[in-house]
Amino acid sequence: MAPSQIELWYQYSDIVIQDVTCKTNRYDMALSLFVILDENRNIRLVAQVLLIDKTKESHEWAFKQINLATNNIHPQVMMTDADPAVYAAIRSTFHTTYPMHCTFHINQNLIKKLQKLLGKRFYEFSTQFYATCNTLHKPIFESKWQTLINQYPEAKQYLTNTLYNTKEAWAHPWTCRKFTAGLHASSPVESINAWIKNYIFNSNISLCELAEKAAIPCISTQISIPSFMFTSIDKKLEEYLPPAILDLQRNEIRQCVFYSALQVNQEVISEFEEYQLPTNQHLEDIPDARQITASCMISDVNKNQIMSMWTVAVENKLVEKHFVILLTNGSHYCSCLSLINKGIICRHYFQIMLCSPTAKFHLKLIPSRWYYRNKDASKEPFLVASKFESDTPPIIPQHNVPFLTVIHQISQNSITLHERLTDIQLYGKITGLTHKATIKALKKKDMRIISILEDYLKDEEQNENVGGDSELDDDNELDGEKLDDELDDEFDDDKENHENHSFILNNPNKQTKSKGRLKGTKRIKASHEKNSSLVISKQYKCSQCGSMGHNKRNCSRK
Prior knowledge:
This protein is an alpha+beta fold. Helix content is about 40%, strand content about 10%. It is built from 20 helices and ten strands. The chain has helices at about 5-10, 55-70, 85-95, 105-120, 120-135, 140-150, 155-165, 170-175, 185-200, 205-215, 230-240, 245-255, 295-300, 340, 345-355, 415-420, 425-445, 450-465, 470-495, 525-530, and strands at about 15-20, 30-35, 40-50, 75-80, 100, 215, 260-265, 305-315, 315-325, 330-335. Helix 2 crosses helix 3 (about 85-95). It comes from Rhizophagus irregularis (strain DAOM 197198w).
C-alpha cells in the first residue's frame, strides 16, 4: 500500500469491496484487489496483493499485512464474491468487520450449482428464492426458507450447507441496516481489474504507481439546477458536498414533489408489513422499494424519542407507501433506508419537510465521508423548507452536533491522516520535510531556517519547564530510542526481504519445464533410427577375398 492508499483507507474504509482474479498475470499468481468509493464517488484502488493461491491462509496473510500497514483499522463492511475462504479469513482477521456477499455472484452460484440439478423447475425455484431473500422480517425469512427446502429437496444440501450458514452476509433482513454507499455487487472491482489489464498490458508499471492513476467515476458528475423550495439547504449542500454526491442529493429534492405525506398514529402500522414485489430481482435493484417493515423500525428506536410518524406515497400509485419516523434528536428513520445504506437524505423526508416545520435538515444527517476534505458541519444550524423560514428561524446549536443516526453504528466521521499517523510515519514525514527545507536553504544561503528551528526548540523547552513535565521528557526520550530501534529493525527487515522486491518477484510453486532432454536420461531415437540400431559385433574383413570373420593372413584362398 502506498501512503496515499493508506490515507484513503483511513477515510473511506467504512465500505471496502474485495475480489480475486484468476492467475492471469506474468507471475501466474492470484491478484487480490481492494477498492473504496471516495467523497466524489470515484472508485479508488487502496490495496493490491499477489497470492500464491486462494486458500484461507493466503487471504489471512493478506489481511494481516493490511492491518500492519493501516495500524489495525478494520473495514466496517467488506463486500466479497461469496468465496468461503475469504469469508472465513474476514471472520478470523478483521474481527469488527461485517462481511457481505455480492448479489451477482450469489445468482451465478445458484445457476452453476442448481440449474442442472433442478432442470425445468429452476425458474420456479429462482422466483421463490428471490421472494425469500427479499423478505423484510427475519422470522418470515426463516419460515419461507424452510418451505423452500421442503419443496426442492434436491437443492437442500447446497441451500443448507452453503447459503444458510452465511445468510447474514446476503439475506436482506440482515444486510439492510448496513452502510454500503448504495453498492450491493463487486462490480467496482471488476471495472478496476479490466482497466488494469488494458492499462498495463506488456508493461512493468507497479500496482502502487497504478493506484495513483486509477480513479474511475462511478456516476455522472453533472451539476443540475437546485430546487427553489430548499434554497438555504441547497447552499449548504453545495458548500459541503462534492459534485457527484451533490447531484444525487439534488435529485432526491427534485423527486420529492411527486409524493404526498400524511401524519398517522400507531394504529395503522399493520398496513406497512410485507407486500408483493417483482420476482427475479434483488430488493436493492428495485427503485423506491420499501426495505424494512414498520414494526422492525419501531423496535429499532426508543419509543420515548418518537416525535411523529408519517406515511409517504407516490401521487399516482397509492399502493407503494413508505413509513417515516421523526425523532426528538433531529434524526429520522425512513423505510427506504437511503440514509442508512447510502448516506443520502431521501425524497420522502423532503416531502415531509414541505408539510411540517418540525422536520428539520442538518448536514450531520449525511456521513462526513461524503464531505469535502477538512469540512466540519457540527456547528451548522438546523434548517427548514424555504416556505417556513419566516416563521421558523434557523436553530443554531449551542454544542457540537454529533452524527445524527437512528441505529447505533460505528461513527461514520472521516478520520484525517494526521490523527492516524503512527510514530514511524510521523518521523518519516518530518524528516522528509526538514531534508527538503535544508536543501533549499543551502542553495539560497538562507539563515532563517536556523532561527525557525531554534525558536521551536526554545518554545518547547519553556513549555516543558513551566509544566514541570520532566517525566514526560524521559518518556519521550524512551519513545525516541524505541522509535529508532523500530526504524533500525525495519531497515534490517528491508535488507533481509530484498528478495521480495517486485522486480524479482516469482511464484515458488510454479513449475517450469526446461528445454531439451532431462539430465540423466538417454536420447529417445526416432522411428527411422530403430531399424538400423541392431548391434553388430566388431569383425575382421579380409582384404584378399572380401569376406568377413577373418583377415588376409588366415584366408583360405591364398
